[in-house]
Amino acid sequence: GKQEDFIKYMDALPKPSGRPTRAESSAADQAPGARRAPKGLGSYSGQSNRIQLSDIHSIPRNPARPADAAKLDWENVVRISHEAAHQLSFNTGILKQRMGYPMWLAEGLACNFEFTDADKPFGPLTHNLPPRADRLGQLFADGKIASLKSIVTMSPTAAREPDNKGPTYVQGWGLFRFLITERPKRLKAYLKDYAARSRPPAN
Description:
Blueprint: H1 3-12, E1 42-45, E2 50-53, H2 69-91, H3 103-111, H4 132-141, H5 148-153, H6 156-159, H7 162-182, H8 184-197
Antiparallel strand pairs: 1-2
Helix pairs in contact: 2-3, 3-7, 4-7, 7-8
């Protein structure tokens, strides 16, 4: 497919409201054999196959600016869904442990299980889109969208840079959704080929 096909696809999607969840940690950070302390408000460890979550209600806040409790509840549920998608993607064999997947793929998959309305079905085959859809549209409008080639080939170190991490999550969401809905056979072939070429050495 061409980048123009991807742009047309994203332009046709309905526009949700809201904003991305905060303080994310990437499953792509789970390099083979690495042991890292949990980061942010949620993370999935490929080494332990466990999810770490913190209740966003517990974050100290300015009393003069009380938070919307219902919105915090929503953010908690979205974060649980995101991290559970990481865990299930490995436990069901969609992704393979210790493969060192690029951030756009690992996080793009998980971001596709975020949502705007917790009372409706969600996932990449629904129109219950996360606020990232708005963010992606804004990147397009501001001329700050990165080329697909740069997102797909970006090194893990570069993808974790503060200026790149947010946009990589957002564009990873859009690219994964495009592939799974418009090019599912190619996505399946890519995952199979990536696992074959990145297979860790036998013990």
